[in-house]
Amino acid sequence: MTQVQGYLDQLVAHIEKQNSGQEEYLQAIHEFLPTIYPYLESHPEIVERNVLALLLEPERLIKFRVPWQDDQGKWQVNTGFRVQYNSALGPYKGGLRFHPTVNESIMKFLAFEQIFKNSLTGLPIGGGKGGSDFDPKGKSDAEIMSFCQSFMTELHKYIGPNTDIPAGDIGVGAREIGYLFGQYKRLAQYDAGVLTGKPLAYWGSLGRTEATGYGLVYFVRELLKDMKDSFKGKRVLVSGSGNVAIYAMEKVIQLGGIVLACSDSNGYVYDENGIDLDVVKQIKEQQRGRISEYLTYKPTAVYEENHSIWELSTAVDIALPCATQNEINLELAKNLAKNGVQIVAEGANMPTTLEAVHFYEEQGILYCPGKAANAGGVAVSALEMSQNAQRLPWSKEEVDDKLEEIMTHIYETCRDTASKYGMEQNFLAGANIAGVEKVITAMMSQGLV
Ligand SMILES: NC(=O)C1=CN([C@@H]2O[C@H](COP(=O)(O)OP(=O)(O)OC[C@H]3O[C@@H](n4cnc5c(N)ncnc54)[C@H](O)[C@@H]3O)[C@@H](O)[C@H]2O)C=CC1
Ligand SMILES: O=C(O)CCC(=O)C(=O)O
């Protein structure tokens, strides 16, 4: 056994013991460590000085009680989290998720991935993530406000425009960011730089709403260019119908692709004529309704309740999972392969199980991991921070041009890093090595901090 392998085995054993039962977190670590093996071989000082032990331990994990009152006057309580994982490259940056499945494991996997994603953007941001097991589904506006105010009452002690800057994620959009900011302002001082993804009326950035979805499609467009191909006529499946999914669909359609299906947590809708995005926006952005309502507007479409979009049996060129973690397992990946998929690019964070990722590799399906392909959202969040610091808003074109430039650079970095280490087209290894290299260099130059 090589020295590097021995070191990795020892680290994995320690992490498994310390985090037993935290499945998603351990999955993210198991996905990450083997891919950086060749980088560690060429950098023996990292192993000799045990740098990875520091990298793998979050700098801080904050867990707090969030009491709030429902519309009946009854007291309710949820758990809040903020994981401040790594600040080598800048203040902690990463979204807040409000979803009943949120727990320590999910928070830690998201914060861990965020470190390398933020590093790949080339912008000065460290990695963090937070949220709560609060379920916004079915709650009134007053209940959402009450919850957000209580959440921020505790969180404001730990964040600030130069220390930790949260944003949105599942269940946290412009409405929630508005309530969170309102409470921050009452408790601290007026500094809109403390959150990103803000509404445009007070220091939000044009283009942030679209950024993750557009960025994902820019990443795939660059990959297609290398293949002397384009989105024109490509048959595309997009899971979810939230922020990331909607703007991924919009850009695919603008570039000439056909989006055949999208979904929500209840089921999926398939429209052979191509999904009508105006209808999806009306249902999801205006009515906050269910995707099944698509059939009211488009009766010829098909709706499948309680089925995954990845079970569909139809020819597919490109799959864009944009809903949630582990939505594609091995069986569903096999179905995608049967349907002829060539590219799987992740808008969501870790939507593919490790077995399915290995299957893509074996089958030669090009796999673009979320930490690279969905980095456009956090990149534009960092541009929002720049605009806030300058006290100057940029035009939508300026933001979008920068987003395209950043995503092209991320794609090229992943491609070239993979090639440099002899792993042609392994974008996962490319993303992990390029992402970690900068973080480790910064950590080593900062000493034991
Ligand atoms: N909003 C952003 O800027 C970024 C989001 N992401 C990731 O993208 C994914 C989606 O986030 P958003 O669009 O912001 O959230 P959202 O709350 O706007 O939408 C989430 C969508 O996923 C669907 N969904 C949730 N759980 C599901 C399940 N179990 N099965 C099927 N569908 C399910 C929901 O119905 C909804 O359509 C998440 O993994 C998030 O971490 C990644 C980078 C940035
Ligand atoms: O915009 C941000 O700061 C965070 C986005 C995010 O949570 C993510 O990239 O997963």
From TrEMBL:
Enumerate the UniProt keywords alphabetically: NAD, Nucleotide-binding, Oxidoreductase
Q: Where is this site: Important for catalysis?
A: 169
Where does the record place the catalytic residues? 129
Q: Which GO terms describe its molecular function?
A: glutamate dehydrogenase (NADP+) activity; nucleotide binding
| Gene Ontology CC, one term | cytosol
Q: Name one GO biological process term.
A: glutamate biosynthetic process
| InterPro entries tied to this protein | Aminoacid_DH-like_N_sf, Glu/Leu/Phe/Val/Trp_DH, Glu/Leu/Phe/Val/Trp_DH_C, Glu/Leu/Phe/Val/Trp_DH_dimer, Glu/Leu/Phe/Val_DH_AS, Glu_DH, Glu_Leu_Phe_Val_DH, NAD(P)-bd_dom_sf
Question: What positions does the entry give for substrate binding?
Answer: 93, 114, 117, 168, 381
Positions annotated to bind NAD(+): 212, 243
The record's section on SMART domains has: ELFV_dehydrog (SM00839)
A Pfam family that this protein carries is ELFV_dehydrog_N
Where does the signal peptide begin and end?
none
Task: Please give the PROSITE patterns that the UniProt record associates with this protein.
Answer: GLFV_DEHYDROGENASE (PS00074)
Superkingdom, taxonomy of origin? Bacteria
Q: Where is the Glutamate/phenylalanine/leucine/valine/L-tryptophan dehydrogenase C-terminal domain?
A: 205-447
Q: Which PANTHER family match?
A: NADP-SPECIFIC GLUTAMATE DEHYDROGENASE 1-RELATED
What does the sequence similarity comment in the record state about its family?
Answer: Belongs to the Glu/Leu/Phe/Val dehydrogenases family.
Oligomer and partners: Homohexamer.
In its UniProt entry, what is this protein called?
Glutamate dehydrogenase
This chain's source organism reads Vagococcus humatus
